[in-house]
Amino acid sequence: MSFLEQWKDLIRNNAIYPEHSEINCAPPDKMLIDWPLGDDPHRPSKRSKSIILTFTREFQDDYSSADAQNKRDKNDTLIITLQEHFKTFNPSHSNPYNIPPPSEEITVR
Question: Region 10-32: what's the mean pLDDT?
Fold first, then answer.
């Protein structure tokens, strides 16, 4: 399993984002997360703002060489960081259907 797939499972298993979120990996270092908003009766398939997670190469290297306890600590830190971000994240936007939703980027160091 790739680095990004491991983190994708970790994020999904911790239910940080809404149930129908899509988490797509964009190797070598990005994940894109969004979900259907369900807030516009004229656009039932309207998607949320995107969250782009970027994992620095240094972080990936440190993670891959870490022992089990350090990996658990890094996992916990990521989950807490994403939970804190989501508390203030407003997924709604007013972009028309023909313009991609805006995005927010989080860099994991």
Answer: 94
Task: In whole angstroms, give the CA distance from residue 13 to residue 28.
Answer: 22
The count of structural domains within the chain is 1
For the segment 65-76, the average pLDDT, to the nearest whole number, is: 95
Q: Peptide bond preceding 28: is omega within 30 degrees of 0, i.e. cis?
A: yes
Q: Is the dihedral angle over the CA atoms 47, 13, 64, 67 positive or is it negative? A: positive
Residue 23: domain span: 3-108
Instruction: Return the axis-axis angle of helices 57-65 and 68-88, rounded to nearest 10°.
Output: 140
What percentage of the chain reaches a pLDDT higher than 90? 95
Alpha-carbon distance 51 to 65, whole Å?
Answer: 27
64 three-state secondary structure: helix
pLDDT score of 2 more than 90: no
Helices (H) and strands (E) counted in the chain, each on its own, are 3, 4
Assessment of whether the complete model's pTM goes beyond 0.70: yes
- For the chain, how big is the Rg over CA atoms in Å? 15
